[in-house]
């Protein structure tokens, strides 16, 4: 693999790092901000919700109308500028409205300038080892958690949460600006071919297309769904429900520090638990890819969802910090499912014929879940004064997630048999 391909991988990882810095970095601000301002946990959780909801609205508009005109590099630079401005607003926030406004400013370009650009970059540059590269890039989200949770809590203790937001904004902008500097939009821009594509393979494809213009070079199974068929099928909506539920409960990651402090851990200990868990999350994304290759995405999702439920059951059963740390590591093995497994499962269950169009809609289920999850879990904590209710609710939603996915897979198998 030449240096250019490695450069693209690094660019993609830096951009994906930008996804995790705002979302995962917020976890360190729950306690200091709520204690200093008097906001409830559920009120402050809405900051993360506004980040996600703004992205749900903005991503289709940015990717359709702006990104094609200005290109990947300028989109990432624009995201870095807006992100820095948003964090500046957060650092000066005195009211809930100011915090929500800062989140909206960050969210306008957050997903478009990070995840969308990164995935597009990898798709443009890699044919061979495409899955491996995507796994490495996705693992950068977990790396952001390790970095922010190791640095930000101590920084906040020493300098205050206001400067903590400035630090987070600086980290975000640097990641995006460096990624933008390194990226090259297409191999053709520098006279290269995508990794795994050769001149001979291009010639073979051209010859096949010439010999039979009615034949699609990539043969798809007759059972693959079209975009229109997917929207008419209950399988699509059952998958969406499953994705929403898992993403909602995955927002518990943001509340792990305060959850551990309610059980007797110090702020620094709680931050270190999240930092160690983040390292596990990084490795787990690669493990998910390997498991999907070996077992299939469907079986792999069953396994990781069951592991996730087990972690919450342990949280509910004990107050022992040592055992809870072990449960947090188990939790971390599966919390990356929305980032890695959802698209693999969609590919396997609905097929690849019109995957891009289908995934473009279905992927918003996770964003919706992330937007709803923070305030929902925060509400149950505020209402009860304990995380016990939150844990039970999380288990309930994960059971719904598993049941919905099982129903989707079962129904899809029946549809295929009828076809």
From TrEMBL:
Pfam families: MFS_1. This is Sugar phosphate permease. GO terms for cellular component: plasma membrane. Residues 4-412 form the Major facilitator superfamily (MFS) profile domain. It is a multi-pass membrane protein. The chain crosses the membrane at residues 43-63, 75-91, 97-119, 131-152, 164-184, 235-256, 268-288, 300-317, 323-345, 357-381, 387-411. Its main location: membrane. It is found in: Cell membrane. PROSITE patterns: MFS. InterPro entries: MFS (IPR011701), MFS_dom (IPR020846), MFS_trans_sf (IPR036259), Proton-linked_MCT (IPR050327). It comes from Trichococcus flocculiformis. Keywords: Membrane, Transmembrane, Transmembrane helix, Transport. GO terms for molecular function: transmembrane transporter activity.
